[in-house]
Amino acid sequence: MPLVLFNKPFRVLSQFTSDADKQTLARYIDIPKVYAAGRLDYDSEGLLLLTDSGRLKSAIAQPRSRVAKHYWVQVEGIAEPAQLAQLRDGVMLKDGPARAHRAMAIETPEGLWPRMPPIRSRKTVPDSWIDIAISEGRNRQVRRMTAAVGLPTLRLVRHQVGPWRIDELQPGAFRQIPVDRALAELGR
Q1: CATH of domain 1-65+163-188
Q2: N or C: which end of the chain has fewer CB within 10 A?
Q3: What is the pLDDT of residues 163-178, one digit of tens each?
């Protein structure tokens, strides 16, 4: 029983089948009976965890588990200290309040792969990067939070979930670790 750490490419569904003409996990992962522990939007990239262990999936994905999810977020505009503080203090979304455990301005992440197609860039509008961590996983939460403070998301890359990091995994690549080791790393 593995825990699969997968670097989900941009515009890939976090599932194995689709009614639409969209790429799915089946193109990249041929391991029977593993399913995503949580989700990562079609237009987001980065670390997606999959497992065949119900216990591990619950430990990762259930809101009561409070497992932190860390994102590199490229936003339109320059992230000011007041906006970052707002993200940490909490913002009101249509489905209730949301706050980041961490929100800090960073340089472009080292080793970040180019996105295809590339992000649109405008000469008159600067962009910047934020490293943000949340423990919830509401639909498009990070994108809605950054928009709420006036920083629309251009690119969203999840680089860490709990103790697991994307490290050197390139888009479409994965590695496996045993479930018992993964549970121990989570402290469960």
Answers
A1: 3.30.70.580
A2: C
A3: 999 999 999 999 999 9
